């Protein structure tokens, strides 16, 4: 099974050049059964990465372009009255929205209003949607990969804390290196390459890997280190609020997934350190400027691995 994970990473690295750490984080996020938020400038490969992940994992894939006029029904679906042929009788029939897929790409999610953004809250937490009083389960596995532009850009609606907390990780791709960009300029379109990807992990294998992630061992000393990190956010000055128990569980699950992708059956402190920025920076706010892009750096420099 680990060879399949390695093959999947190799395929992803052929599509998104020069970003091995971000790709490993993205794959770890899905193996940990979490949702992924990709924040970056337009044109940095966010959508291509989501498409590539769906391809290598063999997942049914839908994409929604979030705009200011998007309605919740455009995401969840709607009931339409359908008449019987030759009769005035009929009945309402529910037409599923694009959320009924194994991998949903919410493209530029922060360009939609909070009302439309909140349509995903139940889906992301409960893997189900409630429409017109009826609850409908979503396919398994189910993931949301959302992209967002920097909030400094015009026409954006910042995601509230409750929405951000639904994402296991937030990553940023950043500009490519000079060598990687030259390969992009000289090579085949990465979007075309993503369309031709073959599945390296089936949805059934993915669910098995998710079960294996939960079995990755975390020793008492590793859990002690994790708890010291959590306590630092709650009781040391500098944070508007501390990390919640759900955030602590997310950090542990992400570290387990990173260890599995690294072909280990146990968690090391280095695994926690590797996933910490992606897991906590969007969940915490710095009291000084309200931003959350560097709060993990202070945690890592202040909390000792061993005591």
Question: What's the layout of helices and strands?
Answer:
Elements: H1 2-15, H2 20-31, E1 35-39, H3 46-56, E2 61-65, H4 72-76, E3 77-83, E4 90-96, E5 103-107, H5 114-117, H6 121-126, E6 128-131, E7 134-137, E8 143-148, H7 161-164, E9 167-171, H8 178-186, H9 190-195, H10 203-215, H11 220-235, H12 245-261, H13 269-280, H14 295-302
Parallel strand pairs: 1-8, 1-9, 2-5, 5-8
Antiparallel strand pairs: 3-4, 6-7
Helix pairs in contact: 1-3, 2-12, 10-12, 12-13, 13-14
Please supply descriptive tags for the structure shown above.
single chain, 307 residues, alpha/beta, Rossmann fold, Helicase, Ruva Protein, domain 3, two-stranded antiparallel ribbon, 14 helices, 9 strands
Could you walk me through the main structural features you see in this protein, from its secondary elements to its overall organization?
There is one protein chain. The protein is of the alpha/beta class and 307 residues long. The chain folds into two domains: 2-215, P-loop containing nucleotide triphosphate hydrolases (Rossmann fold, 3-Layer(aba) Sandwich), CATH 3.40.50.300; 216-302, Magnesium chelatase subunit I, C-Terminal domain (Helicase, Ruva Protein, domain 3, Orthogonal Bundle). The chain has helices at residues 2-15, 20-31, 46-56, 72-76, 114-117, 121-126, 161-164, 178-186, 190-195, 203-215, 220-235, 245-261, 269-280, 295-302, and strands spanning 35-39, 61-65, 77-83, 90-96, 103-107, 128-131, 134-137, 143-148, 167-171. The strands form three sheets. A five-stranded parallel β-sheet has the order 2-5-8-1-9. A two-stranded antiparallel sheet has the order 3-4. The relative contact order is 0.16. The model has no long low-confidence stretch (mean pLDDT 87).
């Amino acid at each position: 099974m680990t060879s399949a994970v390695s093959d999947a990473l190799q395929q992803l690295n052929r599509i998104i050049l020069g970003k091995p750490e971000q790709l490993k984080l993205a794959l770890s996020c899905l193996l940990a059964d979490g949702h992924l938020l990709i924040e970056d400038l337009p044109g940095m490969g966010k959508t291509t990465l989501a498409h590539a992940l769906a391809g290598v994992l063999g997942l049914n894939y839908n994409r929604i372009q979030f705009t200011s006029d998007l309605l919740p029904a455009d995401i969840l679906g709607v009931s339409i009255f359908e008449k019987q042929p030759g009769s005035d009788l009929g009945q309402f029939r529910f037409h599923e929205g694009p959320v009924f897929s194994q991998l949903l790409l919410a493209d530029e999610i922060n360009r939609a209003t909070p009302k439309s953004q909140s349509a995903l809250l139940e889906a992301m937490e409960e893997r189900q949607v409630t429409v017109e009083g009826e609850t409908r389960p979503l396919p398994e596995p189910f993931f949301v990969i959302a992209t967002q532009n920097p909030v400094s850009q015009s026409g954006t609606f910042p995601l509230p804390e409750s929405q951000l907390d639904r994402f296991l990780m937030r990553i940023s791709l950043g500009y490519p290196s000079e060598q990687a960009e030259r390969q992009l300029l000289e090579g085949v379109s990465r979007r075309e390459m993503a369309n031709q990807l073959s599945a390296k992990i089936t949805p059934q294998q993915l669910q098995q890997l998710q079960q294996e992630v939960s079995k990755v061992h975390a020793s008492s000393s590793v859990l002690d280190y994790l708890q010291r990190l959590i306590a630092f956010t709650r009781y040391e000055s500098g944070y508007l609020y501390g990390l919640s128990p759900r955030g602590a569980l997310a950090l542990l699950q992400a570290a387990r997934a990173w260890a599995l992708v690294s072909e280990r059956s146990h968690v090391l402190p280095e695994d926690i350190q590797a996933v910490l920025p992606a897991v906590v920076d969007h969940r915490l706010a710095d009291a000084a400027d309200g931003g959350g892009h560097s709060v993990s750096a202070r945690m890592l420099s202040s909390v000792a691995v061993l005591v």
